User: What shape does this take?
Amino acid sequence: MDEGVRERIELSIGRIRFIGRDGWNSRYKAFFKEVAEFILYAYDNISKSKKDTTLNFNELYEINSHLYEDIADDNYATSFANPDYAVEFLGEEFGGVLSYLYYEIRGIIAYLYEDKYEEFASVIELFLEVYNIFTDEETLQYKFVRDAIYYHMYDYADVMVQRRTLETINPDYTFATDIIMNSDLSDLRYLFKYGEYISENETRTAEFLNKLTDKEVKAMARTYVDGFVNGFKTMGIDITPKRSVNIRYSIGQERMVRYAIKMFEEYNLKPVIFRYAVSRINRKLTIRTGFISTFANQQYEYDHRMDEAVFTDKAFLERKLEVIEDTYRKNAKLAEEYAGPAVIETFGEKPFKPEIKDSVIKLNDKQRDIMLEYQTKSANITNKYIPRDKYSFTIIAYPIPEIGDNFEEIFAEVVKVNTLDNELYKDIQTHIIDELNKAEYVHVLGTNGNKTDIKVQLHKLNNPDKETNFENCLADVNIPLGEVFTSPVLTGTNGVLNVSQVYLNDLKYINLCIEFKDGRMYKYTCDNFENEEDNQNYIRENLMFNHETLPIGEFAIGTNTVAYVMAHKYDILYKLPILIVEKMGPHFAVGDTCYSYSEDMKLYNPDGKEIIAKDNECSILRNSDDESERGKAYFNCHTDITIPYEEIGSIASVHPDGTRVNIIENGRFVLLGTEKLNEAF
Assistant: This one.
């Protein structure tokens, strides 16, 4: 640790130890005393847990539980981390901002475990600065508190944003890699080295993987690694100049990840592994990108999803962009050698329906606009140094124990789903694509209460013998296999998309209904809340990411009936991740196309036909001479919404002469050459 940072920490900790014993009497004292106690407990006990190798599992579990107990379960109701409680106890003027401050301070758990002492020092110094403002109540104003937070974030952007940017491409950050490769994975005490919330999901997953044979775990890792490598082959990208791969996983999966790291070494790829961002300066809503564990409390994450509103303005976001650009520029070689993300998702959590709270901090309209502008500029900077057409990715998913008593059976079934026969599906999906290439548009109709009735306009093929609208998607970047997809023409794509239940970005939507006009979201609602305004805000914030509208970026037909039958067998249809669900029926993605930032790459199906449907009326604006128009090309989001087979009345290929050929009818495949897909039923 830098000596100057050490002195700052010792001075601050010394002052924090006196909070609550200084004779100050105020309703705010309880907040500062409680947060001070949290800081001191974390500072004293994290160091102990890292150094004392004699601590047993139960002792480490007790420390971990204490670090998260105030936001977990029923304790959250009376925690200052809960905006409702903070506002009730501390008042409307300061309750929300102090609740956010506590959220930000809770990031010290990660900082201390990862030896990020400068970040730790800066956060506890901010706490003391705000504390000093409150002790002089005669001059106390919200502006002073907001300014303290704003300038802290502005001043430390060069540390926090720079480090976050760099750790996403630099394999020299080895905190998690060291845990994976150097720990005795049969001794579950290793789980507590991360500093993340450890529940039965993490411990039972690790225990389960430890029971599998080497052959079984290696096979899982091989499917995952081969999927990543095959993505390069499919897209015609040379993997040999690449030197790093970003591995994203959930804690408990280390045995599989260890084998995967060794397999990636066969391609000269070193692991880039980082924790999801814990500070709002680097977060986007509730999305967690990096290694993760089970939520200690998902409502807590949802309540704080837009806390950056406290410090977000144009000058601050320009500062962030400068730091991101400067970091990439100074580390251009690392960026160039980055091969992309290899993601292991999990699923099976209990359904989460967020509570809507008036007390939470939210972005105002002006902030939403500048945030959208920032996201576009940030994505452009990233694409400048890591061009989308120069890297690949893969995603695979496994259940967690929370899915139910049949966890081990379901896990085995998912492994089978992830390793279905590529050749069989390639041929079947070719039949579907050959028919769809004759269509002017596709007509999708719902049934059994599903109100879907939408016409999807397709691109015109100039040379059908050599061109195709649909990609034949097998087991490479998206595992499991089983879909054909396209980027529709927006003009002429009209109608209603409806689905009874769906999970998108860890959030549940009930009776989601979206109306499209010329391929863009026109009206939208759901039945999550009694208040219609709450329903629309929920969709706009969490599905549309605060955009006024989003286009349809993708239309696909999923063919993985094996996964669908598995879902019904174990009654887990609405617990599956979109990665699997999208292969179990037609789906529509709102946002960018699947080819965003790489539309000019030439891609071919296994039959040699070139995929020409990669642009739409939005993405093509990237070539505009008008800079403001170029800024409208991308939305930097892509969310798949799937209709399950039992809610599909028909999917019909409609030819220019009006001929209709059904691909699916009443939830079953009826097109000649697809009969084998019904055998799973």
